[in-house]
Design brief:
Blueprint: E1 7-10, H1 16-27, E2 31-36, H2 39-52, E3 57-61, H3 67-80, E4 86-89, H4 103-131, E5 134-139, H5 152-172, E6 177-182, H6 201-211, H7 219-232, E7 236-237, H8 242-252, H9 254-273
Parallel strand pairs: 1-2, 1-4, 2-3, 4-5, 5-6, 6-7
Helix pairs in contact: 1-2, 1-7, 3-4, 4-5, 6-9, 8-9
C-alpha cells in the first residue's frame, strides 16, 4: 500500500493518534477527511495541515456512535474527494471505571469502540468489493490482546474491536480488502490520562498500569509506525513490541497470567495508598 494519491477518512482526528495520522497521511500524498466529535478540534487539525498542503484536508464534525452521522461523513468525503480508499476507525472512549454505574455508559463505549467500526465497514464494503480494493484500519489497544486493569467496558470493547478486524481480514482479505489493527500501550493523549483524572483509585490504577508497563509514545511516533505497517500491509500493528511477548505468555499459561495480573493490580492499588 502506497498512500500517495489515496483518499482517507480518520475518525477521532481532532488530536492524539488521529490528528497525527491525518497529518502524516497528507505529508505522504493522501487527501484526508478529519472527523471528530469536537468539530472545532477537527477544524484546527485540518487548518494546520492545509497551511502546508492547501486543499488536502477537510474537517467534519461527526459522532460515530450515530450511524446516520457515519453515513453523512462517508458521503461528505466522497463529495469532497471521491471514493474512500482508507478508513481509519480511530475514535475511542475510555469508558466507565470498573463495571460502570449503568447500561448507558456501556452502550456508549460499545457504540464508539466497536459498533462504529461495524457500521463503517458495512457502508464501505460494497464499494470496496466492487472496486476490488480498500483498506480498513482499526485502532484497538494492547488491552484488546491483554486486558485493561480498571475498566471492564474498555477491555471488552477493545477485545471486540480486535476480533472484528480479524473477521474482516479473514472474510474479505482475498477480495482486495486489506485490514490492519493498531494495538498500542501508552500513548500521550487525553485518553491515557482519563483514569488518573477520574478521582477513583481503580481508575488511577488503570492509567498507572499502562504508563508503568512500557514507554509512553507520542502520537507522531505511533503515526510513523502505522505508515510503515501499512506499506507492508501488516495486520497487527504493535508500537510497543513487548506486547507480543506479553500476549504469548498469556496464551501459553492463561491461569498463570491471570494470577500475575491480579498481583500487578494489587501492587498498583497499594501504590495509590502510599
Amino acid at each position: 500500500m502506497q498512500v500517495a494519491g489515496k483518499i482517507a477518512v480518520v475518525t477521532g482526528g481532532g488530536g492524539g493518534i488521529g490528528g497525527a495520522l491525518a497529518a502524516r497521511l497528507v505529508r505522504d500524498g493522501a487527501r484526508v477527511v478529519v472527523a471528530d466529535l469536537d468539530t472545532d478540534a477537527a477544524k484546527g487539525i485540518a487548518a494546520t495541515i492545509s497551511r502546508d498542503h492547501p486543499g488536502a484536508a477537510v474537517a467534519v464534525g461527526a459522532d460515530v456512535s450515530d450511524i446516520a452521522q457515519i453515513e453523512a461523513l462517508i458521503a461528505r468525503a466522497e463529495a469532497e474527494f471521491g471514493p474512500i480508499d482508507l478508513y481509519f476507525a480511530n475514535a475511542g472512549v475510555a469508558g466507565p471505571v470498573g463495571l460502570g454505574e449503568d447500561d448507558l455508559q456501556w452502550a456508549t463505549t460499545i457504540d464508539v469502540n466497536l459498533r462504529a467500526h461495524v457500521r463503517a465497514a458495512r457502508l464501505l464494503l460494497p464499494g470496496w468489493l466492487e472496486r476490488g480494493e480498500g483498506y480498513f484500519v482499526s485502532t484497538a489497544s494492547a488491552a484488546g490482546l491483554l486486558t485493561q486493569i480498571g475498566s471492564a467496558a474498555y477491555s471488552v470493547t477493545k477485545h471486540a474491536a480486535v476480533g472484528f478486524a480479524e473477521w474482516l481480514a479473514v472474510t474479505y482479505g482475498d477480495r482486495g480488502v486489506r485490514v490492519s489493527c493498531l494495538c498500542p500501550m501508552g500513548v500521550e493523549t487525553p485518553l491515557l490520562r482519563a483514569g488518573e483524572n477520574s478521582g477513583d483509585a481503580l481508575g488511577a490504577a488503570a492509567t498507572r498500569a499502562v504508563t508503568s508497563a512500557g514507554a509512553v509514545l507520542t502520537p507522531d511516533e505511533v503515526a510513523e509506525i502505522v505508515m510503515a505497517a501499512l506499506e507492508q500491509e501488516r495486520f497487527l500493528i504493535l508500537p510497543h513490541p513487548e506486547v507480543l511477548d506479553m500476549y504469548r505468555r498469556k496464551g501459553a499459561d492463561y491461569d498463570r497470567w491471570l494470577s500475575g495480573m491480579r498481583q500487578y493490580q494489587q501492587r498498583l492499588l497499594d501504590g495509590a495508598k502510599s
